[in-house]
Each structure stands twice: as C-alpha cells, then as structure tokens.
C-alpha cells in the first residue's frame, strides 16, 4: 500500500512542476541554474525518449497502459515483502502515470530539466522521466542481487 503512496507523491510532484513551468515560462525560455551544468528550459515533446515516435499518441497510450497493468500486477503478486523491487515498481508507476496524464490532456509531454552532465546533447526531461529511469536502475540492481543469491544457493 505504501508503494502506491510513493507513486502518488511522484505524480503530484511531476504534475506540480510541469504546471509551474507551463504557467510561468514561455516555450523555449531557459533559466540558468548552474552555468554550463543545469538549466530549466521549457520544452515540449510529442514523442518518447530522444523525441522518438513523434505524435504517435495511440502507441504511447497502449504501451503506457500495458506498462501500468504490468507494474500493478507485479506489485500485487511478486513484489510483496521485497522493498527494493516494490520501490522500483512504484517509481516506474509514478513516472509512467505522470507522462500519461500529459499525453492525455496536453497531447504532448512537458520537459524542463536541461542538464549537460551525462553528455552534451542529453535530452531535456522531467520528474516523471527521472522517476522512470531511477525505477529502471533500481530494478536492474534488484535483478542482479537476485541472480547472485540464486548462484550462492546453488553453491551451498
Ligand atoms: C524515461 C523514459 C521516457 C519516457 O517513457 C515513458 O513515458 C513511458 C512510460 C512510455 C513510453 C512510450 C515507453 C518507453 C519507451 C522507451 C524509451 O523511451 C527508452 C527510455 C530509456 C531511458 C531509460 C529508462 C533513457 C532516458 C531518457 C530520457 C531521460 O531520462 C532521464 C530522455 C527523456 C526525454 O527525451 C524526454 O523528452 C522524454 C519525454 O519526457 C517523454 N518521456 C517518455 O516517453
């Protein structure tokens, strides 16, 4: 149950930040937070990561609904009592729903986190993308841990 609250918190934070950007900034406007490192740039994306599949909203609706159903199923059936697994799913659930709300009501996704750390042209993203990516990373860590545990049990 607590994990749905984590997802809800992520959705609220994501939608609040996107609302602030839409309300207070023109598209394309950029605010320097840390010179050459981090900017807040108001940006819109009708596609997925790196702007792939521009405008294919139906495709995104279908994929996102499948992703959401899959996450809830795993949260209920397989992740009970496994905090790391549940948190990774909660982060992905929050992120997926956050962008889903944008795609439903805005027909595009609001992005504003503009960093130059990862690589020069790292795309501008939002809280939902960050939550999704963190969820993916946590899931990979969990799966590696599981792998090691199984190997160890086989050796014992
Ligand atoms: C993060 C998933 C993207 C997110 O997927 C979603 O919504 C899901 C729920 C629905 C998609 C239709 C399905 C996933 C497609 C797979 C994909 O895309 C490969 C992702 C790799 C990823 C590692 C997990 C790397 C990193 C990306 C970025 C930022 O990472 C911090 C760049 C974000 C900017 O291009 C920004 O403009 C994107 C815009 O906000 C719309 N966002 C989406 O489509």
How would you explain this protein's 3D organization?
It is a single chain. The termini are far apart. This protein has 4 helices and 3 strands; from the N terminus they run H-E-E-H-H-E-H. It is 62% helix and 13% strand. It is an alpha+beta fold. The protein binds Myxovirescin A. Myxovirescin A binds next to helix 2, helix 3, strand 3 and helix 4.
Structure, briefly:
It contains four helices and three strands. The chain has helices spanning 2-24, 57-77, 83-105, 127-155, and strands at residues 30-34, 38-45, 109-115. Myxovirescin A binds next to helix 2, helix 3, strand 3 and helix 4.
> What's the alpha carbon Rg, rounded to whole Å?
17 Å
What is the count of DSSP helices, taking H or I runs of 4+ residues? 4
- Estimated helix fraction: 55-70%
Q: Taking strands numbered 1, 2, ... along the chain, how are they ordered across the largest sheet?
A: 1-2-3
Our measurement of the CA-to-CA distance between the termini, rounded to an integer number of angstroms, reads: 35 Å
Oligomer: single chain
User: Mean pLDDT across all residues, rounded?
Assistant: 95
The hetero compounds bound to this protein are:
Myxovirescin A
**Quick one: overall form?**
globular
Strand content: 5-15%
Elements, N to C (H/E): HEEHHEH
Unreliable stretches? none
Number of DSSP-assigned strands: 3
Structural class: alpha+beta
Largest pleated sheet = 3 strands, antiparallel
